[in-house]
């Protein structure tokens, strides 16, 4: 049984607990705190467990030259990449406001700490768990320092090799038991042939004491639902209020109706997963009573006859008799009564 732990206060993941659904707002809020609040509310209304942002301390995440380079993309919010990122970055006070708003409406809030100083702030903000973005999955000093903070961790694995993920597991495990690994391919939007859901099974086999999840950037909901059917215990999807808005992530994001349908579909699949024990269920009794087949006398059989296979047929009988799977057990036994051709053979007819 995979490890189970509280990812957020009162919310367990792993084992048979419901899949934890993260609505990744990222920077799809366009730098507007009111839009951010609308998106938090949307995530709550759609049934997601958590609304997530991306927090950077820009001078710690980017070099000066990276911030100064011209940024002429149609998605740009400024002349330089630094101007663009500053437009999209909320202040510490704004994050405190957003966290309080999320608490007031009853949804968890966290963020990917995109650099070590951002993690320090998120720790001060008292987020329920740290999200490690794929771009930091191979940043081992960052992973070690983050794990030592003591909070649960959700780690995306895009752009990494299996060898690196083994190192991630070992590094984090030394300092923190409660973490999850998400299969992820870092492309936006993601072509289905590059999703590689099979890695979920690889992770489950390689790391049996860690809940495994999925972070998706594909369009639509079907692949994420399939991930849950494969055992993903955490899923993360980017969300937006409008896919046509300016920004690289909107096209690979889910609008409110899609997020709501994803949540409904995941919960339906979880219900349908049911028990691993194969048995006839009470709900099948009506069908079994009507259509279930029995052992029937293929010929008339006289009292005292030793039964042989050529005496049996399998039909829907009335009354219902011995089930076909037990037919071989009748061979070599004696019948206690006369049985007419096409009558059911009943258990109390056998010596």
Structure description:
33% of the residues lie in helices and 16% in strands. The chain has 351 residues and is an alpha/beta fold. It folds into two domains: 5-273, TIM Barrel (Alpha-Beta Barrel), CATH 3.20.20; 282-349, Antifreeze-like/N-acetylneuraminic acid synthase C-terminal domain (Type Iii Antifreeze Protein Isoform Hplc 12). Strands 5-4-3-10-9-8-7-6 form an eight-stranded parallel beta sheet. Strands 1-2 form a two-stranded antiparallel ribbon. Strands 11-12 form a two-stranded antiparallel ribbon. Helix 10 links the parallel strand 9 (212-216) and strand 10 (234-238). Helix 1 (33-46) runs parallel beside helix 5 (92-105), helix 7 (140-147) packs parallel to helix 8 (162-173) and helix 10 packs parallel to helix 11. The longest helix has 18 residues, at 256-273. It is elongated, with a radius of gyration of 29 Å.
Mean pLDDT: 97
Q: Strand percentage, roughly?
A: 15-25%
H-E order: EEEHEHHHHEHEHEHEHEHEHHEE
Second-tier CATH architecture of the largest domain: Alpha-Beta Barrel
- Biggest sheet architecture: 8 strands, parallel
- Please name the CATH topology of the largest domain: TIM Barrel
Number of domains: 2
Shape: elongated
Kindly report the spatial arrangement of strands forming the biggest sheet. 5-4-3-10-9-8-7-6
Unreliably modeled segments: none
Q: What separation lies between the terminal Cα atoms?
A: 47 Å
Helix and strand content put the structural class at: alpha/beta
Radius of gyration: 29 Å
Q: Write out the CATH superfamily name of the largest domain.
A: Aldolase class I
Number of helices: 12
Q: Helicity range of the residues? A: 25-40%
